[in-house]
Amino acid sequence: MVQLLFLVGMIAFLAAGCGFTSTSPGEAVVFSRFGDVNPKCYPAGFYLYNPLTTSVYHVDVKVQKFEVQADASSRDLQNVHTTIVVNFSIDGTKCHELIKNVGANFTQQIIHPAVEEVTKASTALFPVEKVIQERPKLKKEIEDG
Question: At what angle do helices 112-123 and 135-144 cross, to 10 degrees?
Fold first, then answer.
């Protein structure tokens, strides 16, 4: 009887120190143990981990929308205010590299500054009256950038 209580107590103790996470379809999970990112992205599912030593990052691998408010100047130095929408998706097999090299806040660290810079450079090629008249050309210039 004492052995059974000891076994039940040990199982309860181990289960109490165990964390779990689950993800939906369209999400991947990256685990980081003591700051060292695991070199694998895990697909949607249910996972157990040690919450004392492991951090969990949920990465959305579906197509996402990111909106940027970018202010730029035309060739004749007139202010141009734009709203640009970027649709992007993350490769579900390489999301661990994104977490390791950039971090979880990659939209603010990579996408936002890049879109602002390309918008400023592209808008500066057009005089203000051509920004509306040649909108498809400006759009193509921004997309190419």
Answer: 140
Rounded Cα distance between 77 and 143, Å, is: 22
| Residue type for position 123 | T
pLDDT tens track for 95-130: 999 999 998 888 889 989 999 999 899 988 988 888
Check residue 68 and give left, alpha or beta (phi > 0: left; psi -120 to 50: alpha): beta
Total number of residues shown for the chain: 145
Within the chain, strands assigned E span 19-22, 27-33, 36-37, 46-49, 54-60, 64-73, 79-88
CA 145 to CA 140: how far, in whole Å?
Answer: 8
> Is 89 in contact with 107 (CB distance < 8 Å)?
no
Q: Helix, strand or coil for residue 5?
A: helix
Q: How far is it, in rounded angstroms, from Cα 31 to Cα 76?
A: 50
**Mean pLDDT, to the nearest integer, of 26-42?**
92
